[in-house]
Write a structure and sequence with these properties.
alpha/beta, 2 domains, five-stranded mixed β-sheet, DNA damage, DNA repair, 4Fe-4S, UDG_Type-4/5, iron-sulfur
């Protein structure tokens, strides 16, 4: 507004200066004028509306609509993750539990179960699972030494993590990581990286990123995180295995088993 007035003043379009216009606006503002045009007639002398009373019922309703606190122990969390209060409990299909040692030094997180996983009743099964096992073996690990879990415990109808629930599922996944408190974490897939790190794998790749947590059995700590490719993508695009191999080497670099 002032910039436009200054231009008018420079062009001598009016006899008023920018200071004159600013003074007038200040006067109207102090008088209570907050809009130039209103659709309806306003009673400037009407009493202000009464404040909304906060009652016990209001507080209870607000608390009921807010997500409940996540379980504080891994055992309780594992039961809750498969129960009726989990974010995806209303989806069709079955929820798949995490596998491997509860407090493993290395944790692997995928986005959601594949179709084969649902049939087998375990994450990373079938053809994808066999490739995953070879990937672990290449860096001296196995299913018996890593904690494997999914951001979505159930497979979404479209096979991809729904964006509208991604934030809540990410919160749940980060809580899970904190309870396990691994030394290293391998994130497989773009959606998994977004849920945990808040960025796509492409933006996170190539670095050992720090994930700080304070809910594990060991107290506050830091987990080294590597964002990599999901085995299902490697099956579709074998040429990307070289990139995956670099990520696996980064995962165990300077790490003692």
């Amino acid at each position: 507004m002032v910039g436009a007035i200054s231009k008018l003043d420079r062009d001598n379009a009016t006899g008023l200066t920018a200071d004159d216009w600013a003074s007038a606006l200040d006067w109207w503002r102090e008088a209570g004028v907050d809009v130039l045009v209103d659709d309806g007639v306003r009673d400037w002398f009407a009493a202000p509306p009464a404040p909304i009373a906060v009652t016990a019922a209001t507080v209870a309703a607000t608390a009921a609509s807010a997500p409940a606190a996540l379980p504080a122990t891994l055992e309780a969390f594992a039961a809750w993750r498969l129960g009726a209060d989990a974010p995806e409990a209303a989806w069709s299909g079955v929820s798949l539990a995490a596998s491997g040692p509860a407090y493993a030094k290395i944790m692997v997180l995928v986005d959601c179960p594949d179709r084969e996983d649902g049939d087998a009743g375990a994450l990373l099964s079938g053809t994808t699972g066999r490739l995953f096992d070879r990937m672990l073996a290449a860096i001296g690990l196995s299913r018996e030494t890593v904690h494997v879990a999914a951001v979505c415990a159930r497979r979404p109808a479209a096979g991809r993590m729904p964006r509208e629930i991604e934030a809540r599922l990410g919160e749940v996944a980060r809580h899970h990581i904190g309870l396990v408190a691994p030394e290293r974490l391998l994130l497989l897939g773009d959606a998994t990286a977004r849920a945990v790190l808040g960025m796509d794998r492409q933006a996170a790749k190539g670095d050992l990123r720090a994930f700080n947590h304070d809910s594990g059995t060991t107290g506050a700590g830091t987990t080294g995180v590597v964002a990599s490719l999901h085995p299902r993508l490697l099956i579709e695009r074998p040429a990307m295995k070289a990139e995956s191999w670099r990520d696996l080497q980064l995962l165990v670099k300077d790490w003692k088993q």
